[in-house]
Design brief:
Number of helices: 10
Distance between the termini: 125 Å
Order of helices and strands: HEEHHHEEEHEEHHHEEEHHEE
CATH architecture of the largest domain: 2-Layer Sandwich
Helix content: 40-55%
Largest sheet: 5 strands, antiparallel
Number of domains: 3
Strand order of the largest sheet: 2-1-5-4-3
Strand content: 15-25%
Shape: rod-shaped
């Protein structure tokens, strides 16, 4: 069997080409690939190579390197008029001054890679558009992606706010919002059990407040959840860490609690004013009447004056209590004592 018959029996496009890019042998599949029909005319196939600027240039470079080094060469090529037809072209030495060319169609692979790249780009675009800190983790809980909003949380941790620098690092090291044991527990729950983990609210300490900085020195509050990333076969291929900045929500909740406590203090002040001031008025009035009586025993004058003084003091306290705009606590009876309402900052009683 001659060489032409052998090449024709190969289902892939195959040709033997000289260093001057002249076709010595070519099978029908190679001629068809170049748009020369199924011609066995070597001159026609050689002319078709010359007409393809991309193939001609790539083939010339690869052939020269192959003939000089002796090592097989591969390059990727697509037909000038059919950009979706993509081939991996492999060259091996064929005699002293020629190369054997074998073309493998990789169009489906390239299309799949392109679709994957576009899907990945779209996916990351969506993640970057969310107002959430997103970290994608692989099966070993190493970071494969971190979106732009994650930078704000990193800044709150006092870390460089560059999400790209997290990629490739273990999440416990790259994102120390949790300690290593908590991340290990999350790994077991997500990767082994396939269940979400760590749905909790965390106070992240603010970085040092530099002089002249406009950044708030208050902590940032984050809600952290780690979700399993399914592999489509019933298993888990990794995880997604979602960090939501809930600082505004937490501070609104705190403000609501303060408002409710303030309302309670106000209601208590009204009750105390009613329940204390009524009998206090009677006590104070009786003591003042007694002091105005010229027949009062001298030994009772000083006790009656003390009654008036302390009754007025109690009245002043109830007025301060009613005037409180923001309640504060202070220690009672030393550092280890219980806390009590601080009336020192309340408005002074009216005369």
């Amino acid at each position: 069997m001659d060489l032409a018959a052998v090449l024709d029996a190969i289902p892939k496009p195959v040709a033997a080409i000289s260093a001057a890019l002249e076709v010595r042998y070519a099978n029908a599949a190679f001629a068809t690939l170049l748009g020369a029909g199924a011609s066995r005319d070597r001159a026609a196939v050689s002319a078709a190579i010359q007409r393809s600027a991309t193939l001609c240039a790539a083939l010339a470079r690869a052939s020269l390197r192959l003939l000089l080094s002796g090592e097989a060469r591969t390059f990727r090529w697509s037909a000038d008029d059919r950009p979706d037809d993509v081939y991996d072209v492999q060259l091996t030495r064929f005699g002293d001054d020629a190369v054997l060319l074998v073309a493998d169609s990789v169009s489906e692979v390239v299309q799949a890679e392109d679709m994957y790249a576009r899907t990945r780009s779209y996916f990351y675009g969506v993640l970057n558009g969310l107002n959430l800190g997103i970290i994608v983790l692989d099966e070993a809980f190493r970071v494969t992606f971190a979106n732009e909003d994650q930078g704000r949380v990193l800044a709150a941790l006092g870390l460089p706010a560059v999400p790209l620098e997290l990629v490739g690092r273990p999440v416990a090291e790259a994102y120390p919002i949790l300690n290593a044991d908590d991340w290990d527990a999350a790994f077991q729950q997500v990767m082994t059990e396939g269940r979400p983990a760590l749905h909790r609210r965390i106070a992240v300490g603010a970085p040092p407040h530099a002089a002249g900085s406009t950044q708030s020195p208050h902590p940032v509050y984050c809600a952290l959840t780690v979700l399993p990333l399914a592999d489509g076969r019933g298993g888990t291929r990794g995880a997604v860490s979602i960090t939501e900045d809930v600082t505004r929500v937490v501070r609104l909740e705190e403000e609501l609690v303060r408002s409710e406590r303030q309302a309670m203090v106000g209601q208590m002040a009204i009750a105390l004013n009613h329940e204390i001031n009524n009998p206090l008025t009677a006590i104070l009035g009786s003591a003042e009447i007694a002091l105005s009586d010229p027949k009062l025993d001298r030994s009772l004058i000083e006790p009656m004056q003390m009654v008036v003084e302390h009754a007025q003091r109690i009245a002043a306290v109830t007025r301060r209590l009613r005037a409180i705009e923001e309640h504060q606590l202070t220690e009672y009876g030393g550092k280890s004592g219980p806390m009590m309402l601080d009336l020192s900052g309340a408005a002074a009683p009216r005369a």
